């Protein structure tokens, strides 16, 4: 069996996930990207001993999650690193929040991380080594208006992470949740553009007056900052770091 670690990263065709995939590949891992969309950068990830591949996956379906892990295990022997990163946003007041969107959000952002963890766990236990990183949010810790599905799912991830950490601890498996505030990605750029239209102000004004209002540093976070944290948590130096929430919020929750 290969000694190269294999990282399965969901939602890595874009934004934060794409940066995580590139970083873990540069760290020497095989990377498997599971997403609805094909990543454009895949052909850039070239190395004679490592592989990078894309598995088209709809994470809202249980059978897709199961087939995904089975495929990775068959091809690489194990899922060594699991990064549950895929997500999406929907903004509307609680009373108007569509039930179908609520269900989909929980499926993609909470049930899929649970299922992938459940299916990958035996292979990690067998190897006595595993790293699970769940992409939470500042909205795993605090709430904002009109994002009830997202905030419920992201709070749920904290519970999933802590339980995973307890059950994996004796087997060399760590589980952590990263909680960023606003990171400059397509997910956030769409929200900024929508708010600019709703409020009738410029994109720059929305950034500074709305999105960065609670930020001490006053700047958007870059995807590389989050990917560096993932890289560290996957390293052997981080083997005692588990069950924890890693906040990258520019000081938002310090107040
Ligand atoms: P993004 O929109 O750039 O990327 C999200 C990816 O998830 C996309 O490639 C999308 O295709 C994929 N995805 C969505 N639904 C899917 C499904 N059913 N099956 C498979 N793939 C699916 O967003 P991003 O900003 O990079 O967000 C990545 C993660 O980081 C999300 O979980 C998000 O909640 C979290 N996050 C983002 C921010 C931010 O400010 N951007 C802040 C905190 C947390």
Structure description:
- This protein is α/β, with parallel strands linked by helices and 255 residues long.
- The chain folds into 2 domains: 6-181 and 223-254, Rossmann fold, CATH 3.40.50; 184-220, no CATH class.
- Helix content is 44%, strand content 15%.
- The chain contains 7 helices and 7 strands; from the N terminus they run E-H-E-E-H-E-H-E-H-E-H-H-H-E.
- The protein has helices at residues 15-26, 62-76, 99-127, 148-168, 186-199, 203-211, 223-234, and strands spanning 6-10, 30-35, 52-56, 81-84, 130-135, 173-180, 244-248.
- The longest helix is centred in the middle third of the chain and has 29 residues, at 99-127.
- The protein is globular, with a radius of gyration of 18 Å.
- The model has no long low-confidence stretch (mean pLDDT 97).
- The protein binds nicotinamide-adenine-dinucleotide.
- Residues 11, 13-17, 35-37, 57-60, 85-88, 108, 135, 137, 180, 182-183, 185-188 line the site of nicotinamide-adenine-dinucleotide (NAD).
